[in-house]
Prior knowledge:
Blueprint: H1 3-27, E1 49-51, E2 92-95, E3 98-101, E4 105-107, E5 110-113, H2 125-128, H3 135-143, E6 148-153, H4 155-158, E7 164-166, H5 167-183, E8 186-191, H6 229-239, H7 250-259, E9 266-270, H8 283-301, E10 306-309, H9 314-318, E11 333-335, E12 338-339, H10 343-346, H11 351-372, E13 375-378, E14 380-381, H12 390-404, E15 407-410, E16 424-427, E17 432-435, H13 439-444, E18 448-453, E19 455-462, E20 467-474, E21 482-484, E22 494-498, E23 501-503, E24 513-515, E25 523-531
Parallel strand pairs: 5-6, 5-15, 6-8, 8-9, 9-10, 10-11, 11-13, 12-14, 13-15
Antiparallel strand pairs: 1-7, 2-3, 3-4, 4-18, 16-17, 18-21, 19-20, 20-25, 21-24, 22-23, 22-25
Amino acid sequence: MNLRSRFHLFLCGWLLLFCCVLIDGCSQDEDTAADSGPAPDDDAADDDVVSDDDQADDDQVDDDSADDDTVDDDSGDDDATPPPNVKTLSWLKVEDGGLVDEYGRQWLMRGINARVAGLFDGSGEWAIAPAVYAEWDAWAMANFGFNLFRLPINWSALEPIEGEFSESYLALLDQVVAWARDAGVYVLIDFHQDKYSKYIGDDGAPKWAIYPPLPDGAGKDADKSDYSLQIMLAVANFFNNHEQIRDRFMPAWRLVVSRYVDAPHVVGFEVMNEPITVYLLQGRRKLYEFYEQCAAALREVDERHAIWLEPDVYRNKFLWAPLRDTPFPDDNVVYEPHMYPNFNGMAFQTVEEWVSALTGTFDHLIAETVSWGAAPVIGEWGTHPYDDFAPALFEAIQDLADKRKIGLAFWLWKEKSSGNWGLFDYDSGTESWTERTGPGMDALLRPGVMAVPGRLIGQVFDMDASVLTIEFEAGGGEGAPLVYIPARYYPEGATVELDGEPIEVTIDPDTQRALLPWNGQAGAHELVVRPK
């Protein structure tokens, strides 16, 4: 097809989309859901399903099942909360722009994403990319210095037939969450989508939630480019709530939220990965309406978990998003943009170049966060650790985030295709994984603070000297500082000073975390970690 024909096709698609949006805007108030659900999709059907109406209360994860390393908020007695240890995962709440636990400590999230085989339901290369996740992976995440696991799940595998939910899918989700809990790693449950659905894009919605409906056999050879007509129409109809498609997402959202309502080790729930609304009429308003609908549904059953919200995916391209006129109408919100600079035009080789190029977007990210009334965590960032610019990029982004107290979640843990990003090399012959090495890995897996009494002022890590400096302001009576002190940087051990005085620390061998001696003293403090 020549360029002129492509242009005409593209223009016709946009005109058709525009007409659909106008028609939907006039008619959506009159639309009502059909008396009966759509016919089952044989391609997605699952024999092990449980009806939404019949979902038993005992399917929920009971916080009492957590091990002793997790604080049980539901004990119902008047006993004092036990002191934390290196794996304690107590409730976190957004306060003054930070995530604060029940011990009065502010956490700085050091996170990792993972596509888990059996939970991530993609197409094409993205069907191959997920890796089997085992208990070992959870412990390795903790040992690598991560305290947050952003766990993508897909609506298409959770509810392949409308109103019926896969019991085996939920059981696997429970297992993965439990492994992370036992290793001392918080879990963020992320309703993931890329280009709306695996049937017309990469992953996301089930086939029955695509409008206009796909004919039998369609989808396998679909145009999965970012702006194909089918994807644009499906996204527009979802956010316009045509055929109540947006409303019909709510049972899946409520089910997952309800399942973990009593689980402090689940740090929160993310409504949608990388939403695309920029080309819709009043797209930003419709995105906000969807978020408010999800927040209201969350608060009907859950008063404690944070809701994690992203701006439009176009922030990834422009490194900028508009400010809100008013804060989001919920007091427990994490603002979660992604950070993917244009590597073709910005593949700098020095930390200084990267810092200069990205300072503006980090500063604006803080302004965006304030406008949402939220705490900031970058939900995805990274590149292949073997890229020649990776060491400088990894150091620069962590420096910029540390200075502004922004959490980070690296993309990705393991990956077999789609660029082979991740922290491990995969051998298809033996189906085995080997930890990657080199300067990119060293720059990524550096020491850092996890939690401080009171409020974090900032931290600085000197890569050349392997010296970590942490500053914080304690109000008095909070829990002890928690710091990641890896042997990668301290092979002979580390010396730690609090306000200029040496203190004895014990580094947990499984997590490489140290809970520092602490008397609950108020005031400004400085922690310094050096090699022996």
